[in-house]
C-alpha cells in the first residue's frame, strides 16, 4: 500500500519540476536582452576569432599604392580563384611593363619633379630554390657563358634614364625614371623554366619565377636607398612561341570544363598587375655602387664605322681590354691552390659545376680537397662525378683541338703595313696577341670565345668574316675553321652592322 501511495506522489513531483523548467525556458522569449546579458566584443575577443580577424583585409590594404606596375602579357585561365595569377612568357621576347604613378595630390611631395630608381629582377618563386639561388645562377652562368638571365630592350623602352646591368648580377637590371612622365620599360627573359628542373624522362614541369620591381628615392646623400614600393608577379618562361601554345592549351581545357567547375577559376586578363610585396632582402642590390651602363657596354668592344671595304678602313675607337682585368680573380684561377680557404674552395666547386657537393665539402680547404685520393672522391661523389672532380683537382686539362692567336688591328699596325708595302724599313714594334682555344672547331664556339675576349654578349657579334684574296670578305663557317692550321695568327678588325646593334668581326 505504501508503494501504491508513493508512486503517484513521485510522478506529480517530476511533472511539476518539468513544467517549471519549461516555463522558465520560455520566459525570456520576446523580451529585449539587457546590456549585461552578453557582449559581442567579448565573443570576438576569443582566440579563434582573433585569428580569423588577422586574415581580414585591413584599412592599410585598401589604400591606394603610390605606384603600379602592369606587365603587358595575359594571365593564365587555369588558375584557381584564390591563388596568385600566373603569366606565361616567351624566351627572349620583349614584354612591356608600364610604370604608373598612382599618388594622390600632395602625396610624397619629396619625389615631385625628381627621379626615382627601380630595380627589376627575375628570382625563383619556390622557397626551396630560393635557398640555393646563388648556386643555381652560378651553374646557369657556366652553362651559358656570356648570356644574361634578364635584359632591357633599350630601343623600345620609353622614359627610362641611365639603364644599368651589373655583369655579376645576371638576373637584375636597374634604371631611373620620372613618375610624372610616361614610362614603359621592355624586358627580355633569356632563361626558360625547365633549365632548373631535374632531367628524368622528358616533359619535365618547369619551375615558376617571379618578376619583382623595387623602387627607391634619394636620401640626403643623393643615394637611391630609401624604399618606396615593391611589387611582383609569378611567371613561367617557355621556348619561343611556347608561351602562346601553353596559353591556348589552358584556354581549351577550361572551355571543356563544366560551368560549375569554371566558377572555381579566375578569368584570363589581358594584362598582369604586379601585386605589392616585401622589398628584396639582399642589401647588395640596393646600393649606389657604380655598375656598367647599357650605353657603356660597347666601350669595351672595338667599334669601326663604315662599310669595311678594303679601300676604306676607319680607326677603331677603343683598344681590346684584358679579360683578366674585367673578371674577378677567382674566375681567372683555373686550378685549386692548397692555400685556398674553405670559402675559396666553395667558389671553385661552383665554378666547375660541382654545386651538388658544396654542402659535403663545406669546411674543406684547398689543401683538404687536394689530399683526397681518387678512391676517396669516387666513394663520396660516385663514379661519374668523382672521376670528373678528381681530374679537376689535379688540373688535368683536355688539350684543345685548335689554337689560334688574335691581335686587334690598330692605327700603328696599319702604318706598319703601309711602310712595308712602300718598301720602307720596318720598325720593331711589340704587338700583344690573345690565345683562343677551341675544343669544338665551330663558328659558334669561335663567336663565344671572341665574345668572352671582348667582354660582350655573343648575340652582339653578327657575323665573322675572313679577309680573302683582293680584300674580299669570306663568311667563316664550321668547315673553314676545321681547315685552319693550328696556332694560326689573325689580326682582328670590326665594323658596325647596319641592320642591328651588332658588329661584324674580320679576321686578317
TrEMBL record:
It is found in: Nucleus. InterPro entries: CP2, GRHL1/CP2_C, SAM/pointed_sf, SAM_3, TF_CP2-like, TFCP2_SAM. The keyword Kinase does not apply. Residues 61-300 form the Grh/CP2 DB domain. Its main location: nucleus. GO terms for cellular component: nucleus. One of its GO terms (molecular function) is DNA-binding transcription activator activity, RNA polymerase II-specific. Residues 240-265 are annotated as: Disordered. Residues 241-265 have a biased composition (Basic and acidic residues). Keywords: DNA-binding, Nucleus, Transcription, Transcription regulation. Pfam families: CP2, GRHL1_C, SAM_3. It comes from the Eukaryota. Signal peptide: none annotated. SUPFAM superfamilies: SAM/Pointed domain. Belongs to the grh/CP2 family. CP2 subfamily. This is Transcription factor CP2.
Amino acid at each position: 500500500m505504501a508503494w501504491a501511495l508513493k508512486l503517484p506522489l513521485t510522478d506529480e513531483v517530476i511533472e511539476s519540476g518539468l513544467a517549471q523548467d519549461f516555463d522558465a525556458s520560455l520566459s525570456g522569449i520576446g523580451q529585449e536582452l539587457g546590456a549585461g546579458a552578453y557582449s559581442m566584443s567579448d565573443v570576438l575577443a576569443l582566440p579563434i576569432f582573433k585569428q580569423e580577424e588577422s586574415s581580414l583585409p585591413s584599412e592599410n590594404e585598401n589604400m591606394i599604392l603610390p605606384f603600379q606596375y602592369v606587365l603587358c602579357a595575359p594571365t593564365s585561365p587555369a588558375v584557381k580563384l584564390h591563388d596568385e595569377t600566373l603569366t606565361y612568357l616567351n624566351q627572349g621576347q620583349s614584354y612591356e611593363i608600364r610604370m604608373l604613378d598612382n599618388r594622390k595630390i600632395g602625396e610624397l611631395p619629396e619625389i615631385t619633379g625628381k627621379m626615382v630608381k627601380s630595380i627589376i629582377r627575375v628570382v625563383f618563386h619556390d622557397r626551396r630554390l630560393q635557398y640555393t639561388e646563388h648556386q643555381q645562377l652560378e651553374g646557369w652562368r657556366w652553362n651559358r657563358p656570356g648570356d644574361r638571365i634578364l635584359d632591357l630592350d633599350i630601343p623600345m623602352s620609353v622614359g627610362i634614364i641611365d639603364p644599368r646591368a651589373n655583369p655579376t648580377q645576371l638576373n637584375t637590371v636597374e634604371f631611373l625614371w620620372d613618375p610624372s612622365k610616361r614610362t614603359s620599360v621592355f624586358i627580355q627573359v633569356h632563361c626558360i623554366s625547365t633549365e632548373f628542373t631535374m632531367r628524368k624522362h622528358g616533359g619535365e614541369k618547369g619551375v615558376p619565377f617571379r618578376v619583382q620591381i623595387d623602387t627607391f628615392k634619394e636620401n640626403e646623400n643623393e643615394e637611391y636607398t630609401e624604399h618606396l614600393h615593391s611589387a611582383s608577379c609569378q611567371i613561367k618562361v617557355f621556348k619561343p612561341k611556347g608561351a602562346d601554345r601553353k596559353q591556348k592549351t589552358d584556354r581549351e581545357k577550361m572551355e571543356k570544363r563544366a560551368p560549375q567547375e569554371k566558377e572555381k577559376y579566375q578569368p584570363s586578363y589581358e594584362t598582369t598587375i604586379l601585386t605589392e610585396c616585401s622589398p628584396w632582402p639582399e642589401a647588395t642590390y640596393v646600393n649606389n655602387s657604380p655598375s656598367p651602363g647599357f650605353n657603356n657596354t660597347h666601350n669595351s668592344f672595338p667599334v669601326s664605322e663604315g662599310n669595311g671595304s678594303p679601300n676604306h678602313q676607319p680607326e677603331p675607337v677603343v683598344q681590346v681590354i684584358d679579360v683578366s682585368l674585367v673578371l674577378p680573380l677567382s674566375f681567372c684561377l683555373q686550378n685549386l691552390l692548397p692555400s685556398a680557404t674553405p670559402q675559396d674552395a666553395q667558389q671553385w666547386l661552383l665554378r666547375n659545376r660541382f654545386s651538388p657537393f658544396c654542402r659535403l665539402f663545406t669546411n674543406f680547404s684547398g689543401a683538404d680537397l687536394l689530399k683526397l685520393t681518387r678512391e676517396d672522391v669516387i666513394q663520396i661523389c660516385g663514379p661519374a662525378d668523382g672521376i670528373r672532380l678528381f681530374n679537376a683537382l689535379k688540373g688535368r686539362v683536355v688539350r684543345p683541338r685548335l689554337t689560334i692567336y688574335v691581335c686587334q688591328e690598330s692605327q700603328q699596325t696599319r702604318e706598319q703595313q703601309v711602310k712595308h708595302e712602300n718598301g720602307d724599313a720596318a720598325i720593331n714594334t711589340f704587338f700583344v696577341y690573345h690565345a683562343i682555344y677551341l675544343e669544338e672547331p665551330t663558328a659558334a664556339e669561335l663567336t663565344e670565345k671572341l665574345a668572352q675576349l671582348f667582354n660582350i654578349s655573343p648575340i652582339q657579334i653578327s657575323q665573322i668574316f675572313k679577309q680573302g684574296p683582293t680584300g674580299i670578305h669570306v663568311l667563316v663557317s664550321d668547315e673553314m675553321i676545321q681547315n685552319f692550321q693550328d696556332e694560326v695568327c689573325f689580326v682582328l678588325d670590326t665594323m658596325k652592322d647596319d641592320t642591328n646593334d651588332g658588329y661584324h668581326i674580320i679576321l686578317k
